[in-house]
Write a structure and sequence with these properties.
Radius of gyration: 20 Å
Strand content: 5-15%
Largest sheet: 2 strands, parallel
Order of helices and strands: HHHEHEEEHHH
Oligomer: single chain
Number of helices: 7
Amino acid sequence: MYFFGCLHYKSNWNKYKNKIVFTANNNFKDDFLLDFSKKYEFVGRTDINEYLKMLELFFSMHPNTHLTLILGSEIPYLANTQRNYINREKEHLVFNKKIFEYANNHNKLHIINITDFIESQDDFLNNINHFTPQIYYRIANAIIGIAEKYCNQDVKIKSKILIYIYSIKNFIKLRFSNNPFCYKILKNVYGIIRK
């Protein structure tokens, strides 16, 4: 199965090195791409039935373990420009429904549905699977709630001010990284604020 922009195919490497396809801000180099393509085989996306089989296997091997799954957004990212993400929200809707059905019969499986945290298109960062720091903060709090409730863990929550500081960092990186002079100055200012 071939996906547009698949990392395994050498014909796509320039797309990654030149950030034509989504790279999650990674800077890909030939040596990494070669090593990656030798070590891993692309077999396509995991369908829901295979995923449910893997969950069964996991719980058969770890019956006392609590597992938390973070499900994909059922809200479309309207600014999408990536072919592999067209209609991804529809796929998430089908996938999520099956996971919720499965979770109803497995009390050690806990679900965090990202859809519950998204309030507007501004909550997306640059595709349907990447979000602003505020969304990650909400998800982290949900994970902490599960850990405290089911795993008898007391987790320290960091100040929400850090979220705003990370937001400033992301803004600087996205807006000024191709202007080395401005980026260096703003990055230094960020370093001072962060302390």
